[in-house]
Amino acid sequence: MTANQQLATFIPLVADLARDLPEQERYQRLLQALRQLLPCEAAALLRLEDDYLVPLSVIGLSADTLGRRFKVSEHPRLQALLASPGPLRFPADSPLPDPYDGLVENHQGRLEVHDCIGCPLYLQDRLWGLLTLDALEAGRFGRIDLDTLGAFAGLAAATVMAGERIQLLTRRVEDERQRAALYREAASQQRPRELIGQSAVHRALLEEIALVGASELSVLISGETGVGKELVAEAIHAASPRARQPLISLNCAALPESLVESELFGHVRGAFSGALSERRGKFELADGGTLFLDEVGELPQAVQAKLLRVLQSGQLQRLGSDREHRVDVRVLAATNRDLAAEVRAGRFRADLYHRLSVYPLRVPPLRERGRDVLLLAGYFLEQNRARMGLRSLRLSPAAQKALLAYDWPGNVRELEHLIGRAALKALARQAERPRILSIDAEVLDLPGTPPTGGERSLPPATGEARGLSLREAVERYQRQLISEALERHQGKWSAAARELGLDRANLSRLARRLGLK
User: Fold this and answer.
1) For 20-66, what is each residue's pLDDT tens digit?
2) Gap between the Cα atoms of 196 and 265, Å rounded
3) Rounded-to-integer distance, Cα 438 and Cα 422, Å
4) What stretches of 5-150 adopt beta strand conformation (E)?
5) What stretches of 234-294 adopt beta strand conformation (E)?
6) Could you tell me where the beta strands, DSSP code E, fall in 189-327?
7) Could you give the dihedral angle defined by the CA atoms of residues 73, 74, 80 and 81, in that order, rounded to the nearest 10 degrees?
């Protein structure tokens, strides 16, 4: 490419520095210009977040790549690029595995990358991330390409910096690195979980989280089972002035009624049988921070009245004590029930409902989020790839179409479990352990895809029940329905009973008879 051609490529990017562009469009234009300079099959821009590289924009790679999080310690090439003072090219015969093996789009078969160059990006002497280019043809890149990439890296860094500054001014949010550090501190130094997605409804949810996070309002998070209500609560806490203080969680449906009050408010020694010592409750543990009440609709009405008093006055009494304790706690609550209907039915206090739902926040189901399903699938694929010790784990085009066509009644949690099962099934089908493993549509076991021939491939009344008595076949089918309902509701028997149209006590008796409990 001549100097004039290079200049013609750079000029639009320089003009973009002063334009208020959406982040995705800005980064996509950057990669398109890079591919004009250095023709290749794939290009990617990745940001360094702690020990992970997060793809912000890709060209020529599968859609699920944007949902992946590449742990630097597991990818030697990415480590080498981050440690390099400038552009780096890997020899065609390099023994180091490429993180993009099998991810290049529009190519049939399990193709591996044969030529790769990359360059670290620095913002004001701070290592920010990487630019990578990959080609399927060995020897595509040469010395002149490294020089060109080095020159381009400076413009890329300016583009990234302009995008970050404009985003900071328009959205008025904290620096993302500081928020991640606060989030890690609140999560006891564990890597914070992310809200992954790019759909319009997901972006609207993130905007609402940023808006309400900076306030002190109580938030009632509603949504179907498995949509990620707990992650939304974590994000609200991380965006709040209380982010340095603890986020304490309590699943109201997971405790026997007799223990809920003690868990919330604490107890003194001798308050009840088994209370051998004094114990602080979740409210006192969350003092100065945030208390997240999951499945708040499951609270007994007697406890609802005491909870309302604490929310109104900030004062509580431990079980068995007459001493008052004052707490300063922000309450976030979540439910998959229609609490307004529960109020009308007399099962939930109206005054507590209005106290909790000062700011109602609905988390959209996965079926409303379009292609976000592929980003989330990429995130879970990368988790399973590392867990299974594979070089690459990807979805076939047919599998991607099947994921996009499915209705996802179990939402993100169902997707996570499905990817894990499918990866195991796909690996079990291989005669030898592959370097690149593709998940085909048939191993997903979704409606409309071919059955895999396992235990659940046929309905109970046909091949699966062959050789069984009628009673044995019915019991097997009951076990299957109950197990699947429990999986969708995270082991909550009351929620599973509601879905199955049974009284909880009757379901418990049936489960014991079937050997499930």
Assistant:
1) 677 788 888 888 888 888 888 899 999 999 899 999 999 999 989 99
2) 35
3) 10
4) 42-49, 52-59, 70-71, 88-90, 115-123, 126-135
5) 247-251, 290-294
6) 219-222, 247-251, 290-294, 315-317, 324-326
7) -100
Distance separating the N- and C-terminal Cα atoms of the chain: 70
Give 89's strand partners. Answer: 117
Strands 359-362 and 219-222, how do they pair?
A: parallel
Per the listing, tokens 């106290």 go with: 355
Cα 133 from Cα 44, distance rounded (Å): 7
Give tens-digit pLDDT for 464-473: 555 667 777 7
How far is it between the farthest Cα atoms of the chain?
Answer: 85
Whether 279 contacts 266, CB under 8 Å: yes
User: Cα Rg for the chain, rounded, in angstroms?
Assistant: 27
Q: What are phi and psi of 311, to 5 degrees?
A: -65, -35
Q: Are 43 and 133 in contact (CB under 8 A)?
A: yes
**Amino acid symbol at 326:** R
Q: Report residue 408 as tokens.
A: 């996802």
Looking up tokens 């976030």 gives 332
Residue 191 sits at φ, ψ, to 5 deg, of: -65, 125
Q: What are phi and psi of 404, to 5 degrees?
A: -70, -30
Residue 318 forms beta bridges with which residues? none
- pLDDT over threshold 60, residue 171: no
pLDDT value of position 13: 61
Task: Tell how far CA 404 is from the center of its chain.
Answer: 17
Residue 438 identity (one-letter amino acid): S
Measure the CA–CA gap between 205 and 369, rounded to whole angstroms.
11
Contacts of 36 (CB under 8 A, 6+ apart): 9
**H helical segments located in 119-199:** 143-171, 176-186
| Phi and psi, residue 89, nearest 5° | -115, 135
Task: Write out the H or E segment, with its range, that includes residue 437.
Answer: strand 436-439
CB atoms within 10 A of CB 3: 7
CA neighbor of 42 nearest in space, from 103, 119, 94: 103
Full-model pTM? 0.73
| Predicted local confidence at residue 54, as pLDDT | 92
Tokens for 39, please give them: 């023709």
For residue 169, give the amino acid letter. Answer: L
Q: How far is CA 123 from CA 25, 129, 152, in A?
A: 20, 9, 14
